[in-house]
Amino acid sequence: MCKAPTALILMAAAVCLSLTLSGQEVAISSVAVQGEHVIIAWRGPSGWNHVLQYTTLLPATQWTDVLTVPSAPAMNERTLLLPAGQGYGFYRVVCGASLDSPGPRLFFTDLESGPNRGGQDDLGCYVTLWGEGFGASRGESKVTMGGREVARYVEWGQDNAWARKLDMIVVQPGSNVVSGDIEVVVNGKRSNPLPFTVRPGRIYFVSPAGDDSKSGDFGSPFGTVTKAKDTLAPGDIAYLMDGLAQTTEETWSAALAINSGGTPGAPKALIAYPGALAMIGSTNLQYGVRGEDYLAPSSATALITGGNNLWFGNGLPPGFLSNNLNVDPRFRDRAAHDFTLLPDSPAIDAGSNDGPAFDYLGQARPHGTATDLGAFEFAP
User: Fold this and answer.
1) CB within 8 Å of 61: residues ≥ 6 apart
2) CA distances (Å), 260 to each of 74, 266, 338, in order?
3) H or E element in which residue 226 lies
4) Using an 8 Å Cβ cutoff, are 216 and 231 in contact?
5) Which 3 state secondary structure label does DSSP give 322?
6) Residue 183 bridge partners (DSSP)
């Protein structure tokens, strides 16, 4: 069990701290009083039960449970009515492993197919997995493809992704795996599956210290992104090493012009090597990467399909799209870039259920009768 530090609420003031206990970081990140309500945001271990508790005095001999969030996502925010007659108080979050925890959750991967041979140490392509509930270290946890464990774990972490502080794992499949589902297994619990197809393809590497006259293998990398791009055949992958930069114009006012993305089932891929920072484009160019224009002002609307969208503030939605809403989405605080939904938002249950299984914060979708429009699923 782990406990967050308490947060003092004194009118509109708040003290927000973080603490690491039992290997899990739990933090009350913000507290705000608005009239008779208090808005509390916190972060804790994904998939655990989070219990928000309240007391009037510290040190406290007794805490009152205010709210329980079962199998909670990592990031949470709740609006609560202040206790009657209380203008101050202390809140904390207590979290414990949930018996019905959903376990690890996979959101997406960078590749849906790739070779399981070739590349560094002949273990195939690198596959990066993003989600929640992976844990800070691997321990006995594992990743399987087609029911077989991958050959190498390059990186395993919690909140280690650059964007959104998601959990991230990087693996190499190895020759033993077969086509099938990718799954993450933590403490005996399997994640939701994501598809992966083992297929043929060459693996190349590009390094600032490389040379375009070389083979492009791991030990003899190319020196430029353009050389790798021009070399790729359908199904091939090129990994860009740390410090690589393509900032000058190749053609078409772009640093990199791509004429072909491969073929169905055999895409071409340019990917940063695990842990590397590579750059394509510059502020002096109109485009970073440019390919064929698929949508232009003259395009026939019959070629465009879509639905279940909300439009607001810039006229009526296009008539060739279906199930449109033209109303205020009722965000919690648009000016502060808080795009979570208020309880009376028309976006609630107005989406299509064929989208992602989780929202931006890891909340399972749909929470109600249908998926909510937007990045955040409403979960009172």
Assistant:
1) none
2) 39, 11, 39
3) helix 225-231
4) yes
5) strand
6) 144
pLDDT tens column, 253-262 = 887 888 888 8
Rounded to a whole number of angstroms, the CA Rg of the chain reads: 24
**Contact of 212 with 221, CB cutoff 8 Å:** no
Q: In the chain, what are the domains? A: 2-96 (2.60.40), 105-198 (2.60.40), 203-290 (no CATH), 298-380 (no CATH)
pLDDT tens string 202-255? 999 999 999 999 999 999 999 999 999 999 999 999 999 999 988 888 787 887
Q: Which two tokens stand for residue 132?
A: 């929640």
CA distance 241 to 276: 6
Instruction: Please indicate, yes or no, whether the overall pTM of this predicted structure exceeds 0.70.
Output: no
Q: What are the angstrom distances between the C-alpha of 232 and each of 40, 44, 222, 294, 334?
A: 50, 43, 12, 22, 44
Q: Classify residue 83 as exposed, middle or buried by CB count within 10 Å of its CB (0-12, 13-18, 19+).
A: middle
